[in-house]
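Case study 2.
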Amino acid sequence: MTKNDNFSKQAQYYAKYRPSYPKEMYLQIMAYVKERACAWDCGTGNGQVAVALSEFFKTIYATDISFGQLQNSYKKNNIHYSQSSAESVVFKENTFDLVTIAQAIHWFDFSRFYQEVNRVLKNNSIIAVIGYGKLQTDESVNQKLSDFFEEMFGLYFTKNRKYVDEQYKTIPFPFDVIGEYEYMSTYNWELQDLQGYLYSWSSVQRFIDDKGKDPTVKLINSISINWENSKEVRFPVFLKLGRIKKPAANN
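Prediction:
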């Protein structure tokens, strides 16, 4: 794994169990995109957003710092994957009509990343910051899930995690804000699906590495009596859209 790679180890769980994003979110993004030649999906993970964008754009470039994630990515002919940090990419100036960052921007160095955004995106292009919040289900297990979340991220907290909890409303964002939108992604999960999702957390993997034991077992055992067969789970999804405005000399 490369430095700051928090997701290669659990990439298979990430690809299988992380939630996807609703179609209406993509349609909302595309309503503001004037040209559809080329898009950049930064922090692509397993490429789920890149795949969705590939239906709208001629070419997608998808980057991630995690080699393991890229190895588990979805493949399409018009998606070009490469391993790269968000803050230093090889793309030419004024290349892209859209950049998307899904559940990843809180890991970035904002200042350096935005310098790259301003460099490689065209004037009047769009930046879409996407994320999702804590899993929600019924009251019989919600509190236990919330306590587990607080325990894991209390022990292995990254200072920028607060931006996710605040739905990216408070991130540094030096662009013209177009709008902020909210959605819901809903699934029917068996208990093994929940455990797979928990394994995708970087904090859970750090706990396993440090303590030599699996913290999900106690939680799963405690809620199993309330989780017969499948249960509806929901993820609040949020979207922040901005427009890149460049000085006339750089157009």
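Confidence is low (pLDDT under 50) at residues 1-11.
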